[in-house]
Structure prediction request, 314 residues.
Amino acid sequence: MKRRKGLFLVMTGATFWGIGGTVSKKLFQQYALDVNWLVTTRLLIAGLLLLSVQFFVKDRSQILGVWKNRKAAFQLLIFGLIGMLGVQYTYMASINNGNAAVATLLQYLAPIMIMVYFILSKQSVLTRKDLLMASLAFIGCFFLLTNGSFSQLSVPPLAIFWGIFSGLTAAFYTLYAVPLLKNYDSLVIVGWAMMIGGVALSFVHPPWQMDFKSLTPETYLYLIFVIILGTMIAFWFYIESLQSLSPKESSLLGSLEPLSAVLSTVFWLKESFGIFQWMGTACIIVMVLLLALNKDPSTKMNQLSKNEKPLGIS
Prediction:
C-alpha cells in the first residue's frame, strides 16, 4: 500500500506540473495575463504554502534556523534569486512566447547540461551512454524546433531562447541546491527560495498591481490550478513519494511531466505538432528515461541522484 501511494503521488505530481504549464499558456493567450505578474504571484503563494506545510507537518525550527547560519543564508539568497527565480521566469517566458510542450522539453535538457559540466570540470568521464543521451537530446531538439526542415524554425526564436536558458538555470538550480538539501528539509529550501524570488520580482511587477475586476471566475480557476495544483501540490506530492520510492523511481516517473505537457498542449489547446516534432519529443523522453535508469554508481550524475530532491522547477 505504501508503494502504491508513492506511485500515485509521483505520477499525479508530475502530471500536474506538465498540465500546469499548459494552463499557464491558456492564461497568457486567452486572458492576456502578464508573465511577470503570474510568476510573482505563483512564487509568493506557493512558497508561503510550502513553508506552512513545513510548519504544521515537519520540523518547524528549520524555517528560521536556516537564516541563523550565515553561509546557508547567503547560499539560499543566491539559490532563490538565480536558481528559483531564473528557472521559473525563463520557463514561463518560453511558454508565453511558444507553448508549454516545447518549453518543458527544452527545460529537460538540463541533465545533459549537468553532464557536460561534470565532464568539463573533470569530475566525470565521457561514456558511450553519455554520447547516446547527448545524441538523443540533439536530434530531439532539432526535430522539435524545426519539424525536420533545414530552412525554417517551427517554434518562435524567443521561445527557443528562453527554453534553452530555462534548461541552463535548471541545471544551476539542481547543482547549487545539493549542499543546502543535505542540511535542511527541501520544503524549507524551496519554500524560502520561492519567497525570495517572488519578493525580488515584486519590484518589477507587484502582485497587487492587477485589475482583479477584469478576471473572470474561469480565470481564477485556472490561477488556482497553476499556483495550488501545478506548483504547490505537485511539489508536495513529489516530495512525499520519496518516502516510499527511490529517487531513481521518482525521477523515472517524473518523465510524465513533459508527456503531459505535450498531450495537453496538442489535445486541449489544439496546437499542431508535426510528425518530426513527435519524433523529437520521443527522443527527449527516451533520453530522460535512460538517465533515470542509469545503474552505474560511479558516475557523478548518479552520485547526485542519491541526494536527489524534487525540484519543482516548472
About this structure: The CA atoms of residues 32 and 194 lie 24 Å apart.
